[in-house]
Design a protein that fits this description.
TIM Barrel, alpha/beta, Four Helix Bundle (Hemerythrin (Met), subunit A), two-stranded antiparallel ribbon, 2 domains, 480 residues
Length: 480
């Protein structure tokens, strides 16, 4: 039985590339397992998938990379084998390969691809899988004569760092049957196959696997999903609070055998990813483990310390005389300090609230204690959300304005953006600790430790930003 994996299905829009890469690093920091990237080479507004994936690999440490799914008619399988194996080696064995037989044939033909009938596209996909596996297997040069693909003595290699899974995107019967016979995994989507349909599709796939002499459990079943986080349950699938999401995904894991859920986040993508990683994924894992009589997996604790800020390596801008600034320029620069002072004050308030909950935990009744924990959780969540908005505004508006006016500040801006990523990790972990506190009142110690660490990092970061940017903001006339 496969472990449960949770991931992010991110849109590779060229205009939103900076936002996309921030979401990528966030997904990795949150402990998600997968990043799925759709492959539509004919979309002029999309980044090329096989150019984007190495950039994602370079910005992440542990998360797996999945083209979700490769448009095979525009990706020759022999070249694809080399590309996937190369990326697997460079990323330390973090690549799985989603394959599709093809869709949007007019767009494919416009790019020079072959237009295939449904039957021919499935035959071509089966041949492509044979080519891929042959070129990933050490041995003699490969000769293959298919109706769609041929190898005339191609040498195998490079060989992936781990056995790359071939996950097939399938909806209809013949594709599902091919997946049962040849696939390592199955990719489906709630946008095309709601839960009732995906349950029926899984039965077709499982029957085909059994007919081929395979154990259906060996095939990883991954579901691309979308939904809405809301305070109250709505009428649709994944429409409501995180507990409802966890209940519905748990049912799919237990009843249908789904072993992966990859979220396409909504307009508030970072909030959705945090909620999915901190509240939905752990609850599903715990519920499935409990139902199967297994111990619930402990979330991995990723070390984040002040050393991650690399204070000694911070670049410094050339010093200028602040006395040369006009009163209005000094006021503009001072506004950054005032904004930071507000967050310093709120951080102290969060720490004070934690201490109050800790002191009262043993002296008040259970109901009151739970109310205090809910209040603390809401307070922390609000603080985390507002600070995230502040840093996002700096990344998307203030920093570009400073750079446009003075490009020599680029090293400082880059370092500040990197520190925002460290802080985002700490915010996610504080939020996660507050959620866990509701299940275990003893978790207040973890909340306290994470809040203290966040406070120390924030103090260091704010001081550095003020030292380097207060004068330039005033001199350049940048409004915070």
């Amino acid at each position: 039985m496969h472990d449960l994996w949770f991931g992010a299905f991110l849109s590779p829009e060229a205009e939103g590339r900076d936002r996309l890469l921030r979401q990528v690093t966030l997904a990795d920091r949150l402990g998600l397992d997968l990043i799925g990237v759709q492959d539509h080479p004919y979309q002029a507004g999309f980044l090329d998938t096989w150019t984007l994936l190495p950039a994602i690999a370079a910005r992440t440490r542990r998360i797996r990379l999945v083209p979700d799914v490769v448009n095979l008619p525009l990706r020759p399988p022999a070249v694809l084998a080399r590309a996937a194996a190369s990326l697997d080696l460079l990323s330390g064995g973090r690549v799985e390969l989603g394959l599709g037989a093809g869709a949007f044939w007019d767009a494919i033909a416009a790019m020079g691809g072959r237009r295939l009938s449904p039957a021919a596209s499935i035959e071509a996909l089966a041949e492509a899988i044979t080519v891929l596996r042959a070129l990933w297997t050490p041995g003699d040069p490969v000769v293959f004569e298919g109706d769609h693909y041929r190898l005339g003595g191609a040498r195998p290699g490079p060989f992936p760092a781990h056995p790359i899974g071939i996950w097939i995107g399938a909806i209809k019967r013949r594709m599902l049957e091919l997946t049962g016979r040849m696939g390592d995994g199955w990719l489906s989507s709630s946008f095309y196959s709601p839960p009732e349909a995906v349950a029926a599709q899984a039965k077709v796939l499982d029957a085909a696997a059994a007919d081929a002499g395979r154990d259906p459990v060996e095939i990883r079943k991954v579901y691309n999903i979308g939904g809405t986080f809301a305070p109250l349950p709505g009428p649709g699938f994944l429409d409501g609070p995180p507990a409802l999401w966890a209940e519905q995904l748990t049912e799919l894991a237990l009843e249908v055998g789904m072993t992966g859920f990859v979220l396409a986040p909504g307009p508030e993508a970072e909030r959705d990813l945090r909620t999915f990683a901190a509240e939905v994924a752990p609850a599903v894992r715990e519920a499935v483990a409990r139902e199967r009589g297994r111990p619930a997996p402990e979330p991995a604790e990723r070390p984040v310390t002040l050393a991650d800020l690399d204070e000694a390596g911070r670049p410094r801008a050339p010093r200028r005389d602040p006395a040369a600034l006009t009163p209005e320029q000094r006021r503009l620069g001072r506004h950054l300090v005032e904004v930071h002072d507000g967050y310093r004050h709120e951080m102290r308030q969060v720490q004070d609230a934690i201490e109050q909950v800790a002191e009262l935990r043993e002296s008040i009744d259970r109901l009151s204690a739970r109310q205090n924990q809910w209040t603390l959780g809401t307070y922390c969540a609000t603080f985390c959300r507002l600070l995230t908005v502040h840093h996002t505004t700096e990344d998307e508006a203030m920093f570009p304005a400073v750079l446009e006016a003075d490009p020599t500040l680029a090293p400082v801006i880059k370092k500040l953006e990197q520190e925002h990523e460290v802080i985002a990790e700490l915010l996610a972990r504080l939020d996660e600790a507050c959620v866990r506190l509701l299940r275990d009142p003893a978790g207040i110690e973890l909340v306290r430790a994470r809040a203290d660490r966040l406070a120390a990092v924030l103090a260091s970061h704010f001081a550095y930003e003020e030292e380097e940017l207060v004068e330039p903001i005033g001199r350049l006339g940048v409004r915070v």
